[in-house]
Amino acid sequence: MEINLEQLKTKYQSILSKANLGGKKIESKTLEEQSYESTFWSDPKKAGEIMKKITELKKEIEDLEMIELLLEENQLEEAKKLINKYEIL
């Protein structure tokens, strides 16, 4: 089955509309700022959970931004893989 650029762009826009990319960037930045506080590691379990959340958010942001770049560069197969990953979430 041939991969269609316009179909992928439509799917990507649908994912973006649900993903709240701007909100994820703000949340990531806020959590990172918390990690700079001197008392951050006083509760290691909570700190670990926050660090894990930061990592997850950064990965998702990176993936979503990468899809756009892949589509711009016409790397449809790679874009499709990432789109499929986020379509099922």
Q: How would you portray this structure in words?
A:
Residues 47-89 form a coiled coil. This is Peptide chain release factor 2. The protein has four helices and no strands. It is mostly helical and 89 residues long. The protein has one domain (21-87). The chain is elongated and about 55 Å long.
Estimated share of beta-strand residues: under 5%
Number of strands: 0
**SS-derived structural category:** mainly alpha
Distance between the termini: 23 Å
Order of helices and strands: HHHH
Number of domains: 1
Number of helices: 4
Summarize, please.
By secondary structure, the protein is an all-alpha fold. It is built from four helices and no strands.
Quick tags:
89 residues; 4 helices; coiled coil
Topology:
Blueprint: H1 5-19, H2 21-35, H3 44-72, H4 76-87
